[in-house]
Amino acid sequence: MTAPFYKFGFFNDEISLIIAFAIGIFFGLVLEKGGFGSARMLAAQFYFTDMRVFKVMFTAIVTAMIGLFYLSWMGFLDLSLVYYGDTYLIPQILGGLILGVGFVVGGYCPGTSAVAISTGRIDAIFYALGGMFGILVFGELFPYITEFFYSTYMGKINLPTLLNINYGFIMLLVILMAIGGFTAAEWAEKAMLKKREGE
Amino acid sequence: MLNFKKWFSHHHEDNAMEGHLTQKHYTNPYLIGLLLGIVLLSTFVIMGRGLGASGVLSTTVSVAVDKVAPSHTENNEFYQGYLGDGTKSPFKDWLTFSIIGTVLGGFISGAISGRNKLMVEKGPRVSSKKRFLFAFVGGSLMGFGAKMARGCTSGQALTGGSLLSVGGWAFMIMVFVGAYAMAYFVRRQWT
Q: Contact A156/B163 with Cβ under 8 angstroms?
């Protein structure tokens, strides 16, 4: 096992910040190149006219998921050292729902708004200001919702453990779901294009 | 008609100005997804963590509240989490540096593709003023939701999703549910 490099002490915290900056650049490049600096392009997902939000997200998830599994199977990466947050089911379900509504109303999500601001989208500045306002509201309400925030705690848990199904089989299900989703997305886009041309 | 050459074209006259968006201006989404997956995988391999975007906004808010009313943040666990123990600047953080990179990366890509332009993203049927209001309200919901969920599309959906996290998947499904349920009511903003 040699990876994750940081966890095995290959470099210190100072270097990790430079790496953060470099990874951020690639993240920004890819998001912009994919059209995610445009709120109209992002919102198009929810009107079935351009489903690239779904396509990009699921291709990325499948790619990283297979990569992680392969590197871990080869003995190169210790998957147990890769951090992800604990599950607090109900707060995360509610948070996702609220964020989803905010996504279609505001036109961005946090990462894409950063790219939109840097490419000159004025509305994205209002979105980010709103984001800070929402966080302020959350911070001010926090003492009153602390109990809910920590409710339905399940620990660091993944789908194979929860469902007691083999990791590889869950991966297969995710891949099949993605392929099914891509097919449906391509179909929906064509159907919407036909409808628009008919108007 | 799809023009494959144009998918990778770097010279588009004001394509950002077009009211009617078409796919050909941007790179193929599956290729973008693959590249994004590789960025994400590299982050896992190098750092042992995933991507995150909403954290820096929380740090900014916490520092601002702390400046205005230090006694106020003292007893608030939420703000304290972002302020740290005071041994270093709260901004000297992985998430801050990566988001600065993201802003720069977006700018570089926009410059290469000729898409950097001061403009408002909206449909033809809505005024800029109204769009700004919607952006602010949507942003507020996003900020609140991301804190409740302990992450956003980057931190929960992409990172948690590819690690098969239960919370990440529950979050991601609900983002799509929430957005699709709301889409009808804000359609005039986009179409």
A: no
